[in-house]
From TrEMBL, chain A:
PANTHER family: CHROMATE TRANSPORT PROTEIN-RELATED (PTHR43663), CHROMATE TRANSPORTER (PTHR43663:SF1). InterPro entries: CHR_Transporter (IPR052518), Chromate_transpt (IPR003370). This is Chromate transporter. It comes from the Bacteria. One of its GO terms (cellular component) is plasma membrane. Keywords: Cell membrane, Membrane, Transmembrane, Transmembrane helix.
TrEMBL record, chain B:
It holds the Pfam family Chromate_transp. It is a multi-pass membrane protein. The keyword Cell membrane applies. Belongs to the chromate ion transporter (CHR) (TC 2.A.51) family. It comes from the Bacteria. It is found in: Cell membrane. GO terms for molecular function: chromate transmembrane transporter activity. Keywords: Cell membrane, Membrane, Transmembrane, Transmembrane helix. InterPro entries: CHR_Transporter, Chromate_transpt. This is Chromate transporter.
């Protein structure tokens, strides 16, 4: 029961910190889940983040799987409620008062100031996943191929590229014990 | 404003970037809750590959006509400035504007139900197959692909800022603090956030737009 409450607490905190969206809060999520609470290993975190990429909707829905790993279905619910309720309530309330600040020059300053902060956080999110996901030539090639596909070929659905990465991994790595948890 | 909406496959290219709401357009009245739920459920079920905001725009603005472009972008502006995911924040804000609290709840539920139940099913299967070499090999590939996708999306959103020294300094300071000094996000937001907003503070005689590149501010 205690553990359920700490899942709720951790994801509520992350919810409030998620200024700039899911990728921006990724490094902090990994730090809390892997390093502070030891709920997951590095590899499990990478795997679960990967699961979030192959389902529709916001990929941070993967927090549900993290909760499930800690305490089962109740943990999944705690992570979901924790991650979405606080930020959702803030958005709901703020959108009702936002228009009162119409025309305030500080609103523009807020947006301009936060924009590079968010990009920095997204870059850090990429780095934190890359630290476990990139561990050899093949993973580098997959990452570059998907990068080029998403960045240069705008028409292609990124989910297909991510699934393609999974197929390449399946075809070329399944004999190597790649990604296997230590015995 | 420097965010942009990465285009969804098949969606029309993103028009302007931000807008102050104008009074000319009224949000439609009497949209049924069931309609709101089904619309968001559909978006929640087809929006593979991130970039949910682009799917939302295609559906809410172009297909349903529930919002005009300016109202959509002003809702997006709010969703981005506040904590939480843009897609779910936007669902809540739009649902609220259409039908109040009940609208917000059904929009949020529709948006998260398909992906949430799918990822949970995958997660249960993953936990049961932790020692399967095929599952692990495939997930190594997926993880590597996710890195490629994340970096592409980061660059898409950030490339406009890379020409401005002040933006580059804020990005660099943030990455340094989070990824290399491992400073908690709470402190990063509480220090870099106010400094960044101050550096872009409104200037007398100007709108604050694009005039903050004199490099007079030091990043923390």
């Amino acid at each position: 029961m205690n553990e359920n409450l700490s899942v709720l607490g951790v994801f509520s905190l992350l919810s409030i910190l998620a200024v700039g969206g899911g990728a921006a809060v990724l490094p902090e999520t990994k730090a809390l889940v892997v390093e502070t609470h030891h709920w997951l290993t590095d590899d499990q975190f990478r795997d679960i983040y990967g699961l979030g990429q192959v389902v529709p909707g916001p990929n941070m829905l993967m927090v549900i799987v993290i909760g499930y790993h800690v305490t089962g279905f109740l943990g999944a619910l705690m992570a979901f409620v924790g991650f979405f309720l606080p930020a959702g309530a803030i958005s709901w309330a703020a959108s009702r008062v936002w228009d009162h600040f119409e025309g305030s020059p500080w609103r523009r300053s807020l947006q301009q100031g936060l924009a590079p902060l968010v990009v920095g956080l997204m870059a850090s999110g990429t780095i934190s996943i890359a630290r476990t996901a990139i561990d050899g030539t093949l993973t580098i090639i997959i990452a570059f191929a998907v990068f080029a596909g998403v960045y240069c070929v705008k028409k292609v659905n990124p989910a297909l590229l991510v699934l393609g990465g999974g197929l390449v991994g399946l075809a070329l790595l399944s004999g190597t014990g790649a990604g296997m948890p230590p015995p | 404003m420097s965010f942009s909406v990465p285009p969804a496959p098949g969606a029309a290219p993103d028009a302007g970037l931000h807008a102050g709401a104008t009074a000319a357009y009224a949000v439609p009245r009497g949209v049924r809750l069931w309609d709101i739920f089904v619309t968001f459920l559909y978006i929640g079920a087809i929006s593979f590959g991130g970039g949910v905001v682009a799917y939302l725009r295609a559906s809410l603005v172009l297909k349903k006509g529930w919002l005009d472009e300016e109202h959509f972008l002003s809702a997006l502006e709010i969703a981005q400035a506040l904590p939480g995911l843009n897609a779910t924040n936007l669902s809540i804000i739009v649902g609220d504007r259409l039908r109040g609290v009940a609208g917000a709840i059904v929009a949020f539920a529709g948006m998260t139900l398909p992906g949430g139940s799918m990822v949970l099913a995958l997660g249960v299967a993953y936990a049961a197959n932790a020692h399967n070499p095929y599952v692990n090999a495939a997930l190594v590939g997926v993880g590597a692909a996710a890195v490629g996708m994340l970096s592409a999306v980061t660059l898409q959103i950030g490339h406009k800022q890379l020409g401005q020294m002040l933006n580059v300094a804020i990005i660099a300071a943030t990455v340094l603090m989070v990824s290399f000094l491992h400073i908690s996000l709470v402190w990063v937001l509480l220090t870099v956030g106010p400094v960044a907003v101050f550096l872009f503070r409104p200037r007398r005689g100007g709108t604050g737009e694009g005039d903050a590149d004199e490099g007079e501010g030091k990043a923390p």
